[in-house]
Amino acid sequence: FASSLGSLGTSPSLDMLGGRMPPPAMKEDVPLLASAPPGTPPSGPAGAGAGAAGGADQPFGEHPSRTLYVRNVHPSIPDEELSTLFEGFGPLRSLYTASKSRGVVLVTYFDIRHAKAAIRQLQGRLVRRLKWDIHYSLPKGPGEQDQNQGTLVIFNLDPATTNEDLRVAFAKFGEIKEIRETPNKKHHRFLEYYDLRHAEEAMRAMNKAELQGKRIKIEFSRPGGARKNYVFTPDTMHAAA
Q: Which residues are registered as beta bridge partners of 180?
């Protein structure tokens, strides 16, 4: 997923998603303003429009990610206003608006908590007489940057290394979301940060470092796999099974 607006090439097709904008049938508009301060999850009720299976944080049972796929965006909204709106929940890694004329933008945060706060507050929001429909997306694209989704897989650990040992070694780079073990593979673990930048810093500092007498190897891991999320590529947007 490219970090600049113009580097993604061909505008994606929305036909297979039913992404055409509906006619304006709403009675009331809502100002294009974020009501939450940066980095603060809203404390109010879940936003309208969330799927019955998942609630506001997980519409339609989707697995939360840092990228939001926003549909029914009015083409007349300036990019600057969109940026200001979404930055009200936290710093953006990127904002893709090349398909705004078709009613779609993609927003990627560094911190997954900010993406969850944004979808909770903005799902179903009426903006310029169009009701926003927001989903989590798994961005796909070339480049090392797109490999970092906040999760590291750590190889060649001493089997005696505990999760607490890892937390002590890696917490200095940022707040850790979770550490996961793999059955029958005691020599490696998955460690996820809330913020992508902290994962990148940990990768630079700890890859091939020595931990409890073992030289560890670290790679970025992409969570989500076969979970139901929208998937974005430079040439297509489609619903992943």
A: 190
Which one, of 234, 211, 223, lies nearest residue 141 by Cα?
234
d(CA 65, CA 229): 9
- Beta-bridge mates of residue 92: 109
Q: What burial class does residue 4 get, using C-beta atoms within 10 Å of its C-beta: 0-12 exposed, 13-18 middle, 19+ buried?
A: exposed
Q: Are 22 and 86 in contact (CB under 8 A)?
A: no
- Written as one letter, the residue type at 225 is G
> Over its length of 241 residues, how does the chain's per-residue pLDDT go in tens digits?
334 333 333 333 333 334 444 443 333 343 443 333 334 443 333 333 334 334 555 555 688 999 999 999 999 999 999 999 999 999 999 999 999 999 999 999 999 999 999 999 999 999 999 999 999 997 655 554 567 889 999 999 999 999 999 999 999 999 999 999 988 888 999 999 999 999 999 999 999 999 999 999 999 986 544 344 555 544 444 433 2
Tokens of 221: 């891991």
Helix (H) or strand (E) holding 221: strand 217-221
- Whether residue 121 contacts residue 35, with contact meaning beta carbons closer than 8 Å, is answered with yes
Task: Provide the CA 114 distance to its chain's centre, in angstroms.
Answer: 9
Give the residue from 226, 209, 236, 198 showing the smallest Cα distance to 62.
Answer: 226
Residue of 90, 95, 69 whose CA lies nearest to 194: 90
14 phi and psi angles, rounded to 5 deg = -110, 5
Round to whole Å and give the CA distance between 26 and 10: 32
How far apart, in whole angstroms, are the C-alpha atoms of residue 212 and residue 205?
A: 16
Which pair of structure tokens corresponds to residue 219? 């790679």
